[in-house]
Amino acid sequence: MTFTTFTFVIFFLIFFSLYWSFKKSMKIQNLLILLGSLIFYGWWDYRFLILLFISSTIDYSVGLAIYRSTQKSVRSWLMAVCLVSNLGLLFYFKYYNFFIESFSGLIQSLGLNSDGMYIEVILPAGISFYTFQTLSYTLDIYKNKLKPTDNFIDFMGFICFFPQLVAGPIERASALLPQMQKPRQFNYTLAATGGRMVVYGFFKKLVIADPLSLRVDAIFLNPQQYSGLETFLGGMLFLIQLYLDFSAYSDIAKGTARMLGFELMKNFDTPLFATSVPEFWRRWHISLTTWFRDYLFLPLVKLRFDNTLWRISSTILLFVVIGIWHGANMTFIYFGFLMGLCFIPTLLAKNTPWLKEVIKYFNTNKVGKFIAMAFTFTLISEISVLFRAENMANALSIYKNIVYAKQFFQLDEYIHRLFPLVILFFVFEYVMRKKEYCLDIQSWPSWLRYTTYVALSLSILIYGYFDEAPFYYFQF
Amino acid sequence: MKKFLAKSTLVFIPILVVLTISLVLLIRVNEHLPLSIIIKQQQQSKTESYYNRELFENVLDIYKYNTMVHRKPEILAIGQSIVLCYRDFFFAPFQDQFYNTGLMIRNPKDLEVLTDELVNGKLRKPRYILFGLDHSFVLSNTPLDKKSIRTSLWQDPIYNSRKQLRALQSVLTKSDVRKVPEINVGFGKRGMNGNGYRKDGSCHNRWEIDMYSKDSTHIEGILIDDFKNHRNGYPMPMTFDTTKSKKVIVCLNTLRKNGIEILIYIPPLSDQYFNHISKFDYVQIFWKQFMAYQNELSALGFKVIPFATPSQMGLTDDYMLNSDHPGEILVAKQFLKFYQEDSIKGPISRKFNLAKLDALINQSNHPLSFELEPYQIQNQKK
Predict the structure, then answer these.
(1) A274, A280 in Cβ contact below 8 A?
(2) CB A467 to CB B3 under 8 A?
């Protein structure tokens, strides 16, 4: 079930009423969360539920076993079982065919036929998200940072919690599980802010992101038909589309969770206004970057803490892995690699005073800050071409067209029409960037608040894009 | 909780008002009828009525399949849009048993599905099938290959909330959609304007007929552009697909073995268009193979109306609706000529009243249409 469908609206209205009618029984509420989440997820394909159940059961059992075990070797073996099974499932469904394709030459040189080794499987929605969520649970128990739950329903509720199951935020058990285990009372302020987030999310996705995606798709499908400038802007439009699309999902997830009395972590912090690539990654898909920071990067850096070269290599490796997390394609590997390279100036600055001063200037001076912001946005946009392209040939054709297109200065009418809306949105987000969330208009007069809600809702109804357009991150 | 619900309801009220207004407008322009009712009403109607929606997809495969089930025809026209000008009276005295399913079958895969259903008794078997075999049935990698016939009435976009919202948006944002149509027949605004699919399934091309009537100039349409840009039915490379061509033969043989008389119609292309594409070597190679396939079908004992351009028939491009769609007069002329010259007719075709069709062709005074348009008739009455 996708958030931006009539089906979900009906589903949530029923669920919301039912859920709060049992406000005195936390157990029933948790059971409802589990059932609702299974319906929500099974709506795509009921077979996905089997995989979700297997993955969750392994982590639930292994988590308890690790906690009860006192022997270090047993704990390590159990952790290995958990890692192999979770990552094995992920590998099988997401990376197996890519692996066969990448090593087809080697396989054929061994006298085997790689053609018959490909498998036909559908990628289960949200597998990368829930695999990482379950993994963090077991890893935290293994590191003695978390006490496991022995209540399977609470645990399943934490894993399957429908607002964030399919595309995050990837929640840590230490943050979400305790919320599952304590009674929840309806809180007007929390629900009202949640409602605002949902409306804003719907607006971002249906009124701006999806219409933008039409032009982005066309540019990436056939770059030769566009001018150099249009192709160049294609990267920027894609980054804006991706941000709007994904942050809209996170807003709706956070909003619906708040309406049910839960608080999810912040996943975006106006990243398009970042003044450097490292800052961008601190503000973009925060739940994923912090996951990798905690479970991969920091343990790796700790091995040779003071070595700059080691730090640079670890950073590049981190971003290559983040790239691969998104999908089995060379484009993601190059995307991650280039992002990792962009960290080098910041990492070198620690031991290079003049570089430190330059970076400081761009972070403190108003003009410098603006230049840095524009540069960072442009750089990330053009690297993101790799993220969007179907394959390397497609990405190269985009880059080639920016330089070699017959005409450079030409903009089609559709892009012209979209610009005012995009600029208006940027101005609004910039003004509201220091708020807890962008539509935090609690302090506005009530008549203005009401007018804003109605205007946003009517814009969605009249100008929203209602064709089939799933959230971009569903494919991961 | 009560405060939250009350305030939320307050926000929803203006939305509900807008939704209700647009829904009323949608019903007023007759767009809101589901296919199940349209099929019933159209088939029961004593006057001609055209099915053609403005805001919802026409879903012709569903519409035609279910009308076919309703009509139980003895004479069936199948194929893409190129067969849409075959009309019921061509097949007199079987005109009431005719149905034109043009655009229901889009590729050999669809043909297999239909063949299977006809042979296995899921559908009532007709006694005669006219099969429009255009080049896309034997061309590899056409976008049409990705299509699959849909048959369930529940797949009607009327029942799809996203499509409903899009239709409501059009009613709200496009003022011309809201105008009440001048002719009160048919279904949906475009149908009411005289475009669309008749009771017999054939297509009424009011727009093309009107355009020609203005200054007697033939319109080629966008196909030359499509060809240049390798769009739609013209991918690069143009390769003859033997798997597809064999599949077609297997289906036709199965139908023939089941006692169905078959006529294969290879549609014409306008001279202007055919001369243009023939300049390209890769088209020449493909077309040679396509023509060889046409001959192979004849050699296998199938009756085939062969490919020809209007000039090869002693006519002009004026008889074409556009580059690749023949008008009804041209189709009638080809059909009549074929059976006038065919010495060994089949059990059904030998009963066709060709004299009546001949007379109608002679009476016609427009290269694209047999009759006065309904709106012209209405103007005359006024």
Answers:
(1) yes
(2) no
